[in-house]
Amino acid sequence: MLYLKQVVGLVTLARLSTALPATIEYNVPSEAGSVLNLNIALRNGTYTVKANDTIHTIAAKYDVGACDIARVNVLADPNYIYTNETLLIPQIATFPDDTSCFSTNNTEATATCIYGGPHVYTILPGDTIQKIANERYNITVESIMNNSPQTGYIAALDPGPYDVLQEGETVKIPICDNTACTFTQFTFDYGTLQDYATTYNITVGQIMALNLGYNHTDATGVPLVVLADCEITS
C-alpha cells in the first residue's frame, strides 16, 4: 500500500458535516480542524485519463472526492487533466464533498488591483481576460482591460472579455499602490495551487506569474516561489 503525506491544506472538519452515503467509506482526520500531515492511502495501480474525462467523473468512478484526487496528484488546476495522463487514486475518500482545491471564477469581483505584484502574467491555454481577472486574480475584468500601459499584445489585439488569448503572450496586471509582499519558496508535494494561495492569502495568478506560467507537472517535489505577508506599506 502506498502513502502520500499531505504538507499543505486548510480544510476544516466542518466540511464533513454533510451526510455521506452509507456505502462510502472515508478517512477522518486525526487532528480536529485541519487535514495537515494526513497520510493518504492510495489504491494499488493508477488510472489513465481518457478523452472526455473530468476530475469529477473520475472521482465518481472511485467514490472519492475530486479534491482528494487533485491533491494526491499535485494538480495545479483540477479543471485541467490531460488524455493519457496517469493519476494516483486514493484508496478511500477523505473529503468527498470538498471543493476548496478549486479556484472560484468570481464574476462579482470588485477589487481592481493586487497587492505587491508581479505585474505581468503569462497566458496559459484557454485563458481569456475574464478568466485571468475573475478566476486567477479575483479582480474585475475592467481593471485589466483598462490597465495602462498594457502589453503590446493585448493593446494590439484589443480582445473582448471572453476571447481566447494566445498561449505564451503576456498581460499586465494592475498592482495596488503602496503595497508590498515578501518572497518565500515552497515545495509542491501535495495539493493544488489554490491550496497554497489560500494558505498564503494571495491569488493563484500571482503564483503562476512568479513561476513563469507554471500550471502542470507529472512530478512531485517541484520548488515554486510564492508571496507572503502582503500589506499596505503607507
Describe this structure in words.
The chain has seven helices and eight strands. It is of the alpha+beta class. It folds into two domains: 2-87, Membrane-bound Lytic Murein Transglycosylase D, Chain A; 103-234, Roll (Membrane-bound Lytic Murein Transglycosylase D, Chain A), CATH 3.10.350.10. The strands form four sheets. Strands 1-2 form a two-stranded antiparallel sheet. A two-stranded antiparallel sheet has the order 3-4. Helix 1 crosses helix 2 (66-72). The longest helix has 9 residues, at 129-137. Mean pLDDT is 84; it is low at 1-26 and 28-36.
Question: Would you summarize the structure shown here?
Answer:
By secondary structure, the chain is α+β, with helices and mostly antiparallel strands. The chain folds into two domains: about 90 residues, Membrane-bound Lytic Murein Transglycosylase D, Chain A (Roll); about 130 residues, Membrane-bound Lytic Murein Transglycosylase D, Chain A (Roll), CATH 3.10.350.
Low-confidence stretches: 1-26, 28-36
Morphology:
globular
- For this structure, the CATH topology of the largest domain is Membrane-bound Lytic Murein Transglycosylase D, Chain A
Distance between the termini: 54 Å
Q: How many distinct domains?
A: 2
Structural class: alpha+beta
Biggest sheet character: 2 strands, antiparallel
Mean pLDDT: 84
CATH superfamily of the largest domain: LysM domain
Output the CATH class name of the largest domain. Alpha Beta
Number of helices: 7
Strand order of the largest sheet: 1-2
**What's the Cα radius of gyration?**
19 Å
Number of beta-strand segments: 8
The amount of helix comes to: 10-25%
Query: Hey, roughly how much beta strand do the residues contain?
Result: 15-25%
What's the architecture of the largest domain, going by CATH?
Answer: Roll
Order of helices and strands: EEEHHEEHHHEEHHE
Organism: Penicillium frequentans
Keywords: Signal
Signal peptide: 1-19
Domain LysM: 45-89, 119-173
